[in-house]
Amino acid sequence: MKLITSISLATLTLLFSVNTIIADDSEKESTDDLENVEISITNNETGEVTHMDSKDEGVEVESTGNANSDGDIGTLSNSSKTKGYDVFIPIPNEDENSDSEQITTQSTSGRTETSGGVTAKLNVDYDVSIDNEQVRLNRVFGSWDSENYLDIIGREVTAHSGSLTGNKINRTPLYNRFSYTTGWDYNDRLVGDLAPRAWSTANVSVQGGGSFTVEVEFTYADDL
Q1: Where do runs of H (alpha helix) occur along 40-180?
Q2: Of 129, 141, 139, 154, nearest in space to 204 by CA
Q3: In 3D, which of 29, 28, 93 has the Cα closest to residue 58?
Q4: Closest residue by Cα to residue 216 from 199, 203, 204, 202
């Protein structure tokens, strides 16, 4: 009886340890995924560029893709994949009673945000060949949303399926929602600095003064 009890306790201890390791790895992968996106805000009057990440105060980053999407499985590719991010970027708001720029945080719908900012969404739909040697960008899509006192006056979206050897698309959307289909074929799959990449920029005007450019950028199909 004591032997059975000891074996049971050992088994439970092992299972608990395995579950703990899996949970820790999952959390690490989730954090790494959020850190993959590059975020910046430029003061158009001074030229100062501030680089941000998901840990910065006021910044909110959520992964909106990185999974298989509906698609046909043929002899040349796996099913289509999507990867994307939903990024809230706080816009500095000058306090009339202070010489410094102030950002006030508040909670809305369970999500912490600042008193002003832009939510930039950027996604790509792509295919990778079964042998992992080639990639094809099918579509780039997303949007921008801003507070009432912020006007988005300029927009640009760019994506390529690999620097040097891939195709490139560059568009200037007239509205805050966009979706562009490429119609491209496959090209050699590259990694590192040459990996397939997508980015979007928006020029934001603050009513009453001030102008900023926000940018979101990330690589995709680089997980060989």
Answers
A1: none
A2: 154
A3: 93
A4: 199
Q: What is the pLDDT of residues 32-48, one digit of tens each?
A: 678 789 999 999 999 99
Q: Alpha-carbon distance 33 to 54, whole Å?
A: 10
| Closest to 132 in 3D by CA, of 183, 82, 78 | 78
Q: Are 134 and 128 in contact (CB under 8 A)?
A: yes
pLDDT tens digits for range 112-124 = 444 589 999 999 9
* DSSP secondary structure of 8-52: HHHHHHHHHHHHHHHHHHHHHHHHHHHHTSEEEEEETTT--EEEE
- Those residues whose C-beta lies under 8 Å from the C-beta of residue 38, and which sit 6 or more positions away, are 51, 199, 215, 216, 217, 218
- Residue 217, token pair as written in the block: 């950028």
